[in-house]
Amino acid sequence: MSARTIDQHRDAVEALLAPLFLNRATEELPLSSSRLTSDADSYRGRILAQAVDSPVALPPFDNSQMDGYALRAEDLAAASTLAPATLTVAGRIAAGDPGGQLLPGTAAPIMTGAPIPAGADAVVPIEQADPPRFLPQDSDGSTAGVSFLAPVQVGSFVRTTGSDVRPGDRLLDAGTRLGPAQYGVLAGTGVTTVTVLRRIRVLLIATGHEIRESGESLAAGQIYDSNSVILGQALQDAGCTVTAMPCRSDDAADLLDLLAGAPEVDLVVTVGGVSAGAREVVRDALGPLGVTFQHVAMQPGGPQGLGEISRSRTGSSTVPVSTVPVSTVPVSTVPVVTFPGNPVSALISFEVFLRPVLRRLAGLPGPDRELRSAPLAAPVESPAGKHQLRRGIQRPDGALDLVGGASSHLLHAYATATVLVHLPVGVGSVAAGEPVDYWSIDD
Which fold has domain 372-440? Predict the structure, then answer.
């Protein structure tokens, strides 16, 4: 069987996950300052599933835009430098105080955000008063008079009720990504819950008899599990909720047992066990359940797999249907995407095939990396029959330096890279100075 092209496999992954776009599950997200700070991750990058209309006006009352004096504009109608208008100073009004009533011929010291008292229709900033400072109050609460040297327009420095939002106005449309300003306007209008898209639930299974958790002592032939961290972070950045359950075995039965104890999810992603070795645990376990495996003309990341596995629901677990009695139906299916096990192969496979569709599902901006062009700083050779993706760094002059080699185990080089350089099928070599396409990956 001939190798698939990158585009063909990307299309197959998108078709596999297309049902996830239909009838997206939603959930209620409570809004409070304590929850937003104590459980910040639950609120990051959420997408509204339903539009939100304002239950109140914003501002909810007329209030002062400045520190100054609230007064009646008509009391300053004749004010001038030669004939200042002097008003009696009333009691101070701070933010959070009731506005009260302002009598004609008086001016109330008022702070920014404080309610405009009934009878007042303008605010004069403190800098424009004479004296240009708030006067101390006497023991009986009175102060000396304050003078004004010019008229003032009605409504000056008054933030009127509903000038930002009126009751019933549309605050945010469905599909809006919630960030600081959006959460702020929801909180400011007293909204306590919103309906958001539920994050795609992913079961991530890194496989291999050799992998161990960081901090454990390694025996001969064993390595630390970086794939669970690599793909776990990549999936979360793409808007998913991730359950990582490594399979430290090359026995198909052990992988099936792990799946039997897993929670219900929307997608299963596996790493490793998909090549042509004697014991390929993912191929051995999931091939009989409906996952197909093929080679993609790509380097690194050639071995790929995808499909759906039937599952029966017993409690909260997702159980491969072949492992339970027929009487335990109902049965549904879950999509599975499988990646090769070398860390660079796994991460590049995610970038090429899964990241775009997951970001679209999550409603995140920029689901597709922008394809740009820049010259190579040094010549490079590439297998003409494969689309090679090389790690690199863009220099200040715009040229691209490749870092590390083409091998799929060179994870440190990936960690220092800021771009992925594309050398497509049919390109055997590129000379220094020739333009190549690349993706920026330093976001």
Answer: Beta-clip (2.40.340)
